[in-house]
Amino acid sequence: MQKIIITGNLGADPVVKSFDNGGKVANFNVGVTERGYKTQSGVEVPEHTEWFRCVVKQSGEKGMCNVVEQYLKKGNKVGIVGKVKTREYED
Fold first, then answer.
1. Is 38 exposed, middle or buried (0-12, 13-18, 19+ CB in 10 A)?
2. CB under 8 Å to 79, separation ≥6 — which residues?
3. DSSP code for 21
4. Which residues contact 40 (CB under 8 A, 6 or more apart)?
5. What is the Cβ-side half-sphere exposure of residue 31, based on CA atoms within 13 angstroms?
6. Which of 5, 40, 46, 65 makes a 20 to 30 Å CA pair with 80?
7. Higher pLDDT residue, 51 or 91?
8. Phi and psi for 77 in degrees, rounded to 5?
9. What is the pLDDT of residue 59?
10. Is the backbone of residue 51 left (phi > 0), alpha (psi -120 to 50) or beta?
11. What are the pLDDT digits (tens) for 19-70?
């Protein structure tokens, strides 16, 4: 089983879409920033932000999409536990 834990800030308000069958899907981005630092040899390593695209699916009336829609806003600090799903594409 794979598991990822992300703690960061929302880059924008979540986008929630509703479907005719009562289902919903919420999409949002979480930015995780690693602070900059100076190595012992004096090399400056700049701050770096990694962005994660998060998707929450809901099939009925009750579920996490309702929570996302009601409580999450741009800039909020969030903790996410989930699984990683990668996609491949050709340019």
1. exposed
2. 5, 6, 7
3. T
4. none
5. 13
6. 46
7. 51
8. -80, 130
9. 81
10. beta
11. 998 899 999 999 999 999 999 999 999 999 999 999 999 887 788 999 999 9
Q: What is the dihedral of CA 75, 54, 13, 24, to 10 degrees?
A: -150
State how far the Cα of 55 lies from the Cα of 65, in Å rounded to an integer.
9
Say whether 8 sits in a helix, a strand or coil.
strand
Q: Tell me the two tokens of residue 55.
A: 């998707």
Give the pLDDT score at 13: 97
pLDDT of residue 60: 73
